[in-house]
Amino acid sequence: MRRRAGELSRDGQGVTGPLNGYHHETYAFPLPATNELSARFERAKLRAPRPGLLWFDRRCFASEDLLLTALQGRVARIPEIIRVDDGVYLQGFIEGRTLDARQVPGHQVSGRGLSRRHAAQLREFFHQLVSIDPKELAEHRVTRICAPDDWTAEGDSAAFLDRLIRFTEEQVHLGHGEPYRTLFAELGVGADALGRLRKRTVELHSRPFALLHCDLHRKNLIVDRGGDLWVIDWELAMIGDPLYDLATHLHLMGYPRQEEARVKELWVAAVEEARAGSSYGWEEDLPLLLAYKRVQSVFTDIIRTALLLGPDAESNWRVLPRVAWRIQRVLAAAERELYGADAAPTVRQVMTAYRNWFRTTRETATGGDEATQGDEASGAGR
Q: With bands split at pLDDT 50, 70 and 90, how would you rate the model's confidence at 43?
């Protein structure tokens, strides 16, 4: 990928990357004057899916590139894309900063909250997504991964959420999570929380389905040099209940209460203007979707943190307090769904759980007992 980026670059020494990102290996490079993107962009980025990844989200589309191609001219401020070879696409690189720059969850974006300009552009984005008839995407060769008989019926918001919960239960917790079974157990995390959520899906109201981005967090929102807001990284896009996009956005952004209320209002206005009924029952249904997002994050982040620390975990113990703090926050956010009236594990208990799991894993791999002096007594078992 780096070599190919160098071949397409104006200056092979100017290739940067791989850029941060879980799903793709990505390189940015300066564009030659002959490239058709050069009139509007200084640089382009070349992306390819990373092989062998553990997927934590249900995917819908076979090709992000073809989806972006179909959305050109229909959704404002998304990466412009061109095909340079069979199966090779370039995206215009948005020069600027991510919306998360100097911000942390729970704090207002840009000090006083979303600027009027960015709020208007976020509203426009939600409006444009819901304005697209999902059936039209097939006309642009935007194929879906799942077979038609696995598609959720139009407007069946209950079945849509049920599929998402089952994916987390079957593919993430049971599929990816088998090596981490004892870690989940020591943290007191079981699939019963997902089962309880799934029983509640029947409560959901029906809303007309729309195209969803499904990953609207700060690092996927880019403020360009002119101050405009762009949306990047569409690999998790899908077709479904538009309220799920709002729930995902609120969960990932961590807005303070006043700002969250403002975003809810602009979302309702945007989707209702685009297609009547798109926000039907949203106030009653949003808490359940947010509860799912909190629980989903627990299963995802526990495994990702284990992968971050391993396989040579001892060399990464210095970062354990920091990542344990993050896991504790995720567990605490889902405390009611996971633990009921009990408290989530403390940071110290989270650290102990990971140390015990790595020790057990190492002993199993080596087939013998290794010294465990210095390990803290287990206090994370629940």
A: very high
Name the burial class of residue 178, with classes exposed (0-12), middle (13-18) and buried (19+) by CB atoms within 10 angstroms of its CB: exposed
Q: Return d(Cα 230, Cα 220) in angstroms, integer.
A: 8
Whole-prediction pTM = 0.90
Q: Is 328 helix (H, G, I), strand (E, B) or coil?
A: helix
Chain-centre distance for alpha carbon 47 = 17
Query: pLDDT of 75-86, one tens digit each?
Result: 999 999 999 887
User: Tokens 């049920």 correspond to what residue?
Assistant: 162
DSSP string across 218-284 = GGGEEEETTS-EEE---TT-EEE-HHHHHHHHHHHH---HHHHHHHHHHHHHHHHHHSTTTTTTHHH
CA atoms within 13 A on the CB side of 356: 19
By CB atoms closer than 10 A (0-12, 13-18, 19+), residue 297 is buried
Query: Cβ contacts of residue 354 below 8 Å, gap of 6+?
Result: 183, 305, 306, 309, 313, 320, 324
Question: Which residues make beta-bridge pairs with 210?
Answer: 240
Phi and psi (nearest 5°) for 252? -75, -30
